[in-house]
Amino acid sequence: MGKFSVKFLLLIILYLGFISLGLPDKGLDVAWPFMRRAFGQPLENAGILVSLTAILTAFSGFVSGWFMRRCKIVTILSASCFLTAAGLYGYAFSPTWAGVILATVPLGLGAGAIDASLNNYVAENYSSRHMNWLHACWGIGAAGGSALMAAVIALGWKWNCGYIIIASLQVFLLALFILSRNLWNTAVSETAADIPETKLSAKFYLFCSAFVFFIYSAVETSIGLWFYSMMVEKYRFGAARAGSLIVVYWSLLTFGRLVIGSFANRIGNRRIISLGLLGTLGGLGLLFSPNYGMILCGLAIIGFSMAGIYPSMMHETPRRFGQAAGRFMTGFQAGAASLGVALLTPLVGIFISHTSFAYLLPLLAVLTILMLAAVYLLDRHT
Length: 382
Description:
By secondary structure, the chain is mostly helical. It is built from 13 helices and no strands. The model has no long low-confidence stretch (mean pLDDT 88).
């Protein structure tokens, strides 16, 4: 098989991998009302699953660099996919709530490792275009997971069936990883010339890079979660109207990655990151108005602006820190992003609940400025 054919085949598997990674993330949103009745749980206990998954995903991301230095990529991917499938089957067949909690352990650990490993492989072997498209595939998977679970419920099937289907898709992906095991080490990098051999910056700059991911994930999630509440409670929008605006935000976040990926190689990662953060600040400014049209424009701008930040930061990692340190940092950054969702997003909610919704947008603006400052330091010194 020619080098081009190998690269193309692996690229298809990578895209399928990120679609598969996104499938379980939003399926819980649809399944939870039925799951909680089956296990006799209160509405708020969904937060236990979300937080536990995020913490385990973060832990898995933090330690994945150690495994990437010692194991073949296909071994990590296969083991991670097995864990994810086991967790999802655990959701489907568990007779008790304790079993669901237990099944969350392999689900979170598997998701974190496969996320970090796929990001690192694409950063080392493919261009920025493919990194952006890879993360667009996660958005497609997240939307597909919700749609699949909704279809299962609409057909009158039990919520368990949705998880069985998603778990079976993970098994299919596991089979693809195993069947393609001989290809992963034969593909020739199309970006190797861009990666320095021995460049390693001070620990402070490694921290700065992880800090951006920690803040970014919290800002991205807070806009979708807390600004929705702000529209309903402060701006007095109806739930359906506010929900339609949040759909615009998430849709532009995915669509933006498809568009940005088309010209990412010409613009460059660093410019995409800086312009994305500036665009996010501009969009946040529009959200201060309770006018529907202004909010629509603001959320669309924020969604599109933020689209390229995460994948471009990931793709730039081995170019900032070198290949060896980059493998450690890719996992550490993925872990920091999950930790931001698990810790900082709830803290934002606690802060505004004890003060006022009026502080939400200024707080998000301050967090975005902190990201800009960290990126400025990184661009100057790495």
